[in-house]
Each structure stands twice: as structure tokens, then as C-alpha cells.
Design a protein that fits this description.
The complex is a heterotrimer of chains A (325), B (171) and C (433). Chain A has 325 residues and is an alpha/beta fold. Helix content of chain A is 43%, strand content 19%. In chain A, the strands form two sheets. In chain A, strands 7-6-8-5-9-11 form a six-stranded mixed β-sheet, with helices on both faces. In chain A, α3 packs antiparallel against α10 and α3 (93-100) packs across α13. The longest helix of chain A has 24 residues, at 273-296. Chain B has 171 residues and is an all-alpha fold. Chain B has one domain (6-170). In chain B, 74% of the residues lie in helices and 0% in strands. In chain B, α1 runs antiparallel to α2 (46-67), α2 packs parallel to α4 (130-157) and α3 packs antiparallel against α4 (130-157). The longest helix of chain B has 36 residues, at 83-118. The radius of gyration of chain B is 21 Å and the shape is elongated. Chain C has 433 residues and is an all-alpha fold. Chain C has one domain (61-432). Helix content of chain C is 78%, strand content 0%. Classes of the chains: A alpha/beta (325), B mainly alpha (171), C mainly alpha (433). At the B-C interface, α1, α2, α3, α4 and α5 of B face α1, α2, α3, α4 and α14 of C. Bound molecules: sodium ion (NA) (2 copies).
Chain lengths: 325, 171, 433
């Protein structure tokens, strides 16, 4: 081809064996083939360009062209996106992806929060659970006084509302802290629990499937704008309608993650209907308070919450759902 | 030994301020451990506070390191150079350091302003993330001034003798 | 020019700047920015530079460094470390080089409560070097054993570097810690062998101490009670689950001050001096860390490790030769980069290659740990050396470098043993997990 090849840098903080890394690599090779060499990609995995919370900034400033980042690592930066992280909003990654990429939600509210970047795809993982080192959690009362690692700022309030003490720490410190007893347990999804190897220190997992964390694959806005129209369209098209496929990638990490933990000696706990209702009621209160707080700051959080709830209810009918499994 | 020179005296307040942060970090961890283990009262946001303290400690003390001209250098070729060339190299090192610090200062500002504009906060205590930039900016700004001062001081009053080479000259 | 060639040129440029006496932190930062610009243009290079200092704002794990350095400074100024040291000396008394052997023992003991080779080297510098100088040890051996013995701080678990590897390589932290235990102890034994060999070949460099009578040895041991308390707080605190390493370091530092004041071995003035010394050491090290971060981002950009992998694969040699070449690459890279940066840059590239030719991920982690830690003691950029230098400015850097040479043999011997007997690393985790 006569066209000048454009080289794009992809950066993320997980290892090349992580499922998102594999997906991005496959996507990059597909784009190279489709563009007949007009686009080439270089991938920088595993925190090579900085610590995990930096990956939004890396894309925003153009240090890399495309990154994968976690909204919850920079609390306060994406307040409306984080509404999706509130307790019992999303029942599976498939549902989460379908909700977050809804055109109305995206164009009206969420895209604007991603200053300096063009979000290519918003995602969530499958809902997470509580993993405890020694004490089982079967009822809301069991939560009292438990020191629990939370995954994002929204879940911090949920832990506190349930009577626990929220402890913020990166997932890398969970194993040591649970082993040493500086925390009694951690909120994380089964897939994450497996990849951070918390199996040997986990005795019980209370399967609430109560919350998700959201992610974004984004592109530096200036890098995107520089592309010729046909390449822009090619990239846009490559993300159209992938919500279900990408969601399944996450959702299918749940079963092997659970299996690996059980092999290491973990006993899963299913909540009774009555207790599940109590957890959900506490979650609803936390959500209400959070939405009110954001509303008070002049953000349209109420509208976003309502829209997300409606979208989730709509997609639950046609998607995998951990709540009804 | 002479009494401490003016640069050493100028460095001391930065060190003492850093020492106060260090004492705080020590007492804070001790108190939180005691509260958790003896009174069963967990303290919220230990990680947030320790991370902010570490940044404060490093960058409040950083200008002192530059004022004491104490940055680690490698003196493998010093022994074969005449004193005139050694002095030239030390001044060269200071000029390079000054240029680097100024470059860093200029390009840190937009990144700090971004945190100022968007209200990012820490995980547990929701401390505004711009707070972390304050000691960083302070450290780089004062280090820049300090390095310029050291450079001017050396040019006007001469470069102090190197302890290694002094020692050798006695042998 | 390809990015790999820019990487090689930048390494040469960094070397030149350092030799020309530009501060190491500044040289790394400058080489990083210029190299970054050569690959990606000035705009992106300046953005990378402007973002880098902020990368220190989420490093809870690193707050262990000033607290343990403070504990060491207090222990040293109040004479506690000297007491520990006398006890270690008593244990080896009668042998040629007893103080140096005692230093190795003390490093290994300290390693069991500390996750960083820097903090170990920093503490043992204050404790051991003045004593060895007083007793007429060759200065090169005195500094060499501390710099190299400091590595025991990270080989013997817990180990910050292994945690970083575990995350990047998706391997288990407890398994890695278990795997590191025997190689760490063997490394300590190898250091003692090296000291004994020096004593045999060049007896004039190592004084012999009089063998102490049994009663006197006991007395020396009883002088240890303060250190035993601190050790108990730190080790007991961490392993019993009462504290994280940072918390243990904070409480142990506080306890050291309380003991020193209560036994009237430290006044307010020397407490302030201990604090100031800790502050200067910490600030100086972290300024280097900023430079190292910036340089490592540039190195990632060059994809030099990927290119090296390509060259190796093209050779079509036996698997153990590939591993040996990786070790050689780490040793060369270790001249310029710190351990954690090297792991971040290379493991994503090297691990798949190692797994592909049939090696185990846990074993590879221990091998990489030993290989990257060698970089802590090799010129021109060797953090353990700098930490000694920062506290002992009157010792010529060249002497420290020369003193390390014999101890490098211990590390290379450990690598050879790991390659010949992988079960040295793999046996304990296989039993425990
Ligand atoms: Na250790
Ligand atoms: Na080195």
C-alpha cells in the first residue's frame, strides 16, 4: 500500500496472559490485518509505563494511544460512571457491558467524563463476592467488626453500612494482609481472587454477587482525530456489538476461579433469601445516599441511576445473570 | 572541621521538617496498631495517610539533599583528574541538575493542574489528590532554587574539597 | 534508527553522564527524557517526565524504608547494633574474619524481618562497617560484605521484589516466599565461604580474633536483649499476624527509641541526628527512584528486551544456554537499572520464553530475583553501594566496588546451583502448598 503506516501504542497494567490483554492483542492483530498494514500496534503490558492508577492519564496525555484502565482507581474522576459500581446494579459482565455502552447513556452522560480520550468500550467484570480468612459471613450481623478490603470507593460505603470496617489496599496486598490478619477478608470477584492467588488464605466465600467494577478501553482523542476517516470507522466498527462477546470472556472466568479457590480449601456460602434481601436493602440505602451526594454536587446522578437501572432490567432478560443462576 | 557552612545551615530546616513527618509516621503506625490490637478499634485510611506522609517526607526533605550537594555521584575518574578538571565537572553536574529540575518543574505544572481541576480523591479518606502534588511542587521548586544557590556559592567562594581525595592526600 | 539502537545509545550516554560526575538521579532522568524524545518526540517525553514524580504517591509498601532506616539509625547511635554485632562476633570468634562472618549472619537475621535489600544494607552499614574499620579490617572487604550481604535482606523472605514479580508473572506470593528461603540461606553460607577463602588466600586483609571463653560468649549474647526485643516486635509482629511490615517497622522504630531513652544510651540531640540522617538517606534514595522510574519508562519504550528475546530465539541454542543468556542480560542491565524496574520491563517478555522452553514460573522468579539483585551491587548504578556511600562518605566509591568483586562469586555460585538443582527452590513450596 502507498499509505503511510500509523503506529499506535497500546498500554495496560496486567500481564500478557490476562484475558483483557489477550483480547486486546487479538484485536490489534485483527486491525493490522483489516487495515492492510496502514495501522500497526505496539503493546506495553504489565505496568511498564507506570502504576495501575496512571493508565487513564497515560491515554489522556497521549503517552500511549490506547489504554485499558479501571475507573475506580481514580475515585472522584468518573463520578457518573461509578454509579454503575453501586451495590446490586449489575448482575453480570454481559449486562454491565450492554448497560455502559448504551448509546443514550454514553452520549448524554458518560463520554463527557472521559476528558481527553475517546472511550472505545466500557466494561465491567462479573459481580464480586466477600472472601474471608477464618470467619464465615452468613448474615448481615456476621459483618459486624470485620475488617474488609474494598475494591472501589462506592463499595467502601457499603462495607461501612453493613457494620464492617473498610480497608483500602491494592489487590496485590490482599494475600499477605489476610494471612497476617490485618484484614479479615476481601471483596473481589472470583476471577480476580484466582489471579491474585488468595485461595490459600481464603476459608469462606460469601456469594453475594453484589457489585461490579467498571473499566474502559480508550484512545487518546488527538491520536484518534489524526486518523483518516476510513480507519476511524474501522476502529469504531470493531467495537460495535462486542458487549456480549467481551462480557462472556469475563463471566466465564467465574467458574474456574471458584473451582481453584475450592481446591485450595475454600467453602462457598450461599445467602438465604431473607439474608440476601437484607444485604440488598442495605445496598439500596447506600446507593440512595451516594446518588443524593452526587446530586447535591450538581451532577445528574439521579437520572443516570434511573437510566442504568432501567437498562439493566431490560438486558437481564436476554443475558447471563449471576443473581438468578 | 569548620562550623557548618551556610548551605548546610540552609538545608537543616528541610531536614527537620521531614523529621517531623517521619516521627508522625512512626507514632501513627504505632498508635493504629495498638488501637487495633489492644482496643479492637480499627483506624480508617491508614494507607491513605501513610502514602501522603511518605510523599511529604521525601519532597519536603528533597531541597536539603540538593543544598547539601549530597546527591549520589560516581567518582571513578576523579583520582586521575587534576583538581581544576574536577571542579569543572562538579560545576557541570550542577548545571545539568539545574536544567533538569527546571524542565521537570515546567512539565509537572499541567499534570498537577489536571488533578486540581478534576477532584480526584484517595480511596478511603477522600483526600483530594492535588494535595499530593503540593509537596512534590514544593520539593522541586525549592530544589531548583537550592541548586542555583549552590552553583552561585561555589563560583563565588570556591568548590569545597572532596573528602575522598583529601584523605588520600594525607596518606 | 530503531528504538533498540536508541536504547543502547542511551545506556552508553547514561554511563558517560555518570562518569562525568552528573548526579546519578539526574543522569538517569536526563538520559530517560532524551531517549524518550528520540523515540517518541519531545512532547511525549516531557509529558512522561511531568507525570513521573506523582508515581511515588501510591507506594504504601515503600514507607517501610524510612522506618526501618530510622530503627537502624537509633539502634546504631544508642549502641544496640554494636551489641548485636559483638554477639555475632562472639559466635564466630577465633575464626579469621569473624566480624565479617558475623555481618553476614546479622544481614540474614535482619533479612527475616525486612523486605528490602536497601534497608538491610543501610542498617548494617551503620552497625558493621565502623566496627570492622575499628578492628583493622580491609575497608574493601568491610563494605563489600555489607553491600552484598544486604541482598540477603531480599532473598530471605519477606521480599518486596518477589511480590512485584508475583504480580507481573501471575505466580503465588506464598509459594515464591517459600521457594526463596533455601536459596537465601545458601547465599548466606556462600558469603561465609567467600570470607573464609579470602582469609585463607590473603590473611593480611582479615584480622583473627581471639577465641572467646564460653562464659564470655554467653555474656556477649546476653548483651543482645534490646535487639531481641526489637527483633521480637518486628518478626513476631509480622509472622504472628499482628502487623504489616510497615507497621512492624514503625512500632520497632518507636520501641528502639523508647529502649534507648530508658537505658540512657541516647539523648535528645542524638535522636535528632538519627532522624536527620534517616531523612537525608531516604530523600536521596527516592530522588534516585524518580530518575530510575523515568529511565525505566523509556527502556520499556525501546522494547530492547523483546529484541534480545528475538536474537536469542534466532540462535536456536539449548534451553539452559537461553537461561544463561538471560542471566547475563540481567547482569548487564543491572549495571544501570534497579531491581524492580528490571522486573517490570523484562518479566513480561522473558517469562513466556522461559515457560516455553520448559522452566517453572516459581523457579524462574527466584532465578530472576538473584540475577536482578546482583544489579544492586554492580557499578555504576548500584543502590546498595550508594546507601553505604551516603552514610560513609569518606570511603572511596572505587574501593567499595572493588570490595564487592569476591562476593559476586557467591551470587554466581547460587545461580549455578539453582540451575543445576532446581529443587533447591521448588522443594519447599511443593511440600507446603
Ligand atoms: Na527479607
Ligand atoms: Na548495578
Amino acid at each position: 500500500t502507498s499509505a503511510q503506516a500509523v503506529e499506535l501504542k497500546i498500554a495496560h497494567f496486567v500481564s500478557p496472559q490476562h484475558s483483557v490483554a489477550i483480547w486486546l492483542e487479538k484485536w490489534a492483530r485483527k486491525m493490522e490485518a483489516q487495515s492492510k498494514g496502514e495501522l500497526t500496534f505496539k503493546i506495553f503490558p504489565g505496568m511498564q509505563l507506570g502504576p495501575p492508577p496512571k493508565y487513564y492519564d497515560i491515554a489522556r496525555t497521549g503517552q500511549a494511544d490506547i489504554t485499558w484502565f479501571v475507573h475506580g482507581f481514580t475515585p472522584g474522576r468518573f463520578p457518573l460512571v461509578e454509579v454503575s459500581n453501586l451495590p446490586y446494579m449489575i448482575g453480570s459482565s454481559e449486562i454491565g457491558n450492554k448497560v455502559l455502552n448504551d448509546p443514550e447513556l454514553r452520549t448524554k452522560y458518560l463520554n463527557a467524563e472521559h476528558g481527553g480520550v475517546k472511550p472505545l468500550l466500557l466494561m465491567t467484570h462479573q459481580p464480586g463476592n466477600i472472601h474471608t480468612a477464618s470467619k464465615p459471613i452468613r448474615t448481615v450481623e456476621d459483618m459486624k467488626g470485620m475488617r474488609l478490603r474494598f475494591s472501589s470507593a462506592t463499595i467502601k460505603d457499603f462495607v461501612a453500612a453493613l457494620g464492617g470496617t473498610p480497608v483500602g489496599m491494592p489487590p496485590t496486598q490482599i494475600v499477605e494482609s489476610m494471612q497476617k490478619g490485618t484484614i479479615d477478608g476481601a471483596w473481589i470477584d472470583y476471577g480476580g481472587a484466582e489471579s491474585f492467588k488468595i485461595g490459600p488464605v481464603t476459608k469462606y466465600t460469601t456469594e453475594m454477587y453484589s457489585y461490579v467494577t467498571s473499566f474502559c478501553i480508550c484512545m487518546n482523542q488527538a491520536s484518534y482525530n489524526k486518523l483518516p476517516a476510513h480507519l476511524k470507522k474501522m476502529i469504531d466498527d470493531s467495537f460495535a456489538g462486542v458487549e456480549k462477546e467481551v462480557g462472556h470472556e469475563w463471566d466465564k472466568l467465574d467458574a474456574p476461579g471458584k473451582e481453584a479457590l475450592m481446591k485450595a480449601g475454600m467453602t462457598p456460602i450461599k445467602l438465604s433469601k431473607a439474608e440476601d434481601d437484607k444485604f440488598r436493602a442495605a445496598g439500596a440505602k447506600v446507593s440512595e445516599a451516594k446518588v443524593a451526594e452526587l446530586n447535591a454536587r450538581g451532577l445528574p446522578a439521579g437520572a443516570v441511576y434511573k437510566l442504568m437501572k432501567a437498562l439493566a432490567a431490560k438486558h437481564e432478560k436476554t443475558s447471563l445473570n449471576f443473581w438468578t443462576q | 572541621m569548620n562550623e557548618p557552612g551556610i548551605l548546610e545551615r540552609a538545608a537543616r530546616p528541610f531536614g527537620l521538617a521531614g523529621a517531623i513527618v517521619l516521627v508522625f509516621m512512626m507514632l501513627f503506625t504505632t498508635v493504629t496498631v495498638l488501637m487495633r490490637q489492644l482496643l479492637d478499634v480499627p483506624v480508617l485510611g491508614v494507607v491513605d495517610i501513610m502514602e501522603l506522609s511518605l510523599v511529604a517526607l521525601i519532597f519536603i526533605a528533597m531541597p536539603g539533599v540538593f543544598l547539601r550537594d549530597e546527591n549520589v555521584t560516581v567518582d571513578v575518574i576523579d583520582h586521575v583528574l587534576p583538581r581544576g578538571s574536577r571542579i569543572a565537572l562538579r560545576l557541570f553536574g550542577l548545571v545539568v541538575a539545574l536544567g533538569f529540575l527546571v524542565m521537570m518543574m515546567i512539565h509537572m505544572i499541567p499534570q498537577a493542574m489536571d488533578k486540581w481541576n478534576y477532584g480526584e480523591v484517595t480511596m478511603t479518606l477522600s483526600i483530594n489528590r492535588f494535595t499530593h502534588w503540593v509537596p512534590i511542587m514544593f520539593g522541586f521548586a525549592m530544589s531548583t532554587i537550592g541548586t542555583a544557590w549552590v552553583l552561585v556559592h561555589y563560583i563565588r567562594h570556591g568548590v569545597p574539597k572532596d573528602p575522598n581525595l583529601d584523605r588520600e592526600s594525607f596518606e | 534508527m530503531s528504538a533498540q539502537w536508541i536504547g543502547i545509545l542511551a545506556l552508553a550516554g547514561l554511563f558517560a553522564l555518570i562518569v562525568l560526575r552528573v548526579p546519578v538521579a539526574i543522569a538517569m532522568g536526563l538520559a530517560g527524557v532524551i531517549g524518550y524524545a528520540a523515540i517518541d518526540g519531545w512532547d511525549r517525553a516531557f509529558i512522561a517526565a511531568g507525570l513521573t514524580p506523582y508515581d511515588l504517591t501510591d507506594k504504601y509498601d515503600l514507607s517501610v524504608v524510612p522506618l526501618f532506616v530510622l530503627m537502624g539509625a537509633v539502634a546504631t547511635r544508642s549502641g544496640m547494633s554494636a551489641e548485636l554485632y559483638r554477639a555475632a562476633n562472639a559466635m564466630f570468634s577465633g575464626l579469621r574474619g569473624a566480624l565479617a562472618m558475623g555481618t553476614v549472619g546479622a544481614c540474614a537475621g535482619f533479612g527475616a524481618i525486612c523486605g528490602s535489600s536497601l534497608a538491610t544494607a543501610a542498617t548494617m552499614t551503620r552497625v558493621a562497617i565502623p566496627e570492622m574499620r575499628r578492628y583493622g579490617y580491609d575497608e574493601r572487604i568491610a563494605t563489600g560484605v555489607v553491600a552484598s550481604g544486604g541482598i540477603l535482606g531480599v532473598l530471605i523472605p519477606p521480599s518486596v521484589v518477589l511480590v512485584v514479580y508475583a504480580i507481573i508473572a501471575e505466580q503465588g506470593v506464598p509459594q515464591l516466599f517459600a521457594a526463596a528461603l533455601f536459596p537465601g540461606l545458601i547465599c548466606a553460607a556462600l558469603h561465609i565461604v567467600v570470607i573464609a577463602a579470602i582469609g585463607f588466600l590473603q590473611p593480611y586483609r582479615l584480622p583473627t580474633s581471639q577465641p572467646m571463653p564460653f562464659g564470655e560468649r554467653l555474656r556477649a549474647l546476653s548483651g543482645l536483649w534490646k535487639m531481641v526485643i526489637l527483633f521480637g516486635i518486628a518478626v513476631g509482629g509480622i509472622y504472628s499476624g499482628f502487623m504489616t511490615p510497615t507497621e512492624a517497622a514503625g512500632v520497632a522504630a518507636f520501641a528502639a527509641i523508647v529502649i534507648a531513652v530508658a537505658t540512657r544510651t541516647m539523648d535528645f540531640r542524638s535522636l535528632v541526628e538519627a532522624l536527620l540522617e534517616t531523612i537525608w538517606t531516604t530523600a536521596m534514595l527516592f530522588v534516585i527512584v524518580i530518575g530510575a522510574f523515568l529511565f525505566s519508562y523509556f527502556m520499556a519504550l525501546t522494547q530492547l528486551p523483546n529484541a534480545v528475546t528475538g536474537w536469542v530465539q534466532a540462535l536456536g541454542v539449548a534451553p539452559w544456554v537461553v537461561i544463561l543468556m538471560m542471566v547475563a542480560f540481567y547482569v548487564v542491565l543491572g549495571c544501570f537499572l534497579d531491581a524492580i524496574s528490571m522486573i517490570l520491563i523484562t518479566v513480561p517478555v522473558f517469562l513466556p520464553l522461559a515457560l516455553g522452553i520448559g522452566y517453572d514460573g516459581i523457579w524462574f522468579g527466584i532465578l530472576v530475583l538473584v540475577a536482578v539483585e546482583i544489579g544492586m551491587i554492580t557499578p555504576p548504578m548500584g543502590l546498595n553501594i550508594f546507601v553505604i556511600r551516603a552514610q560513609m562518605p569518606d570511603i572511596a566509591l572505587g574501593d567499595v566496588f572493588r570490595g564487592i568483586v569476591p562476593f559476586l562469586a557467591a551470587h554466581f555460585a547460587l545461580i549455578a546451583l539453582l540451575m543445576l538443582l532446581p529443587s533447591l527452590a521448588l522443594w519447599l513450596p511443593s511440600v507446603l502448598y
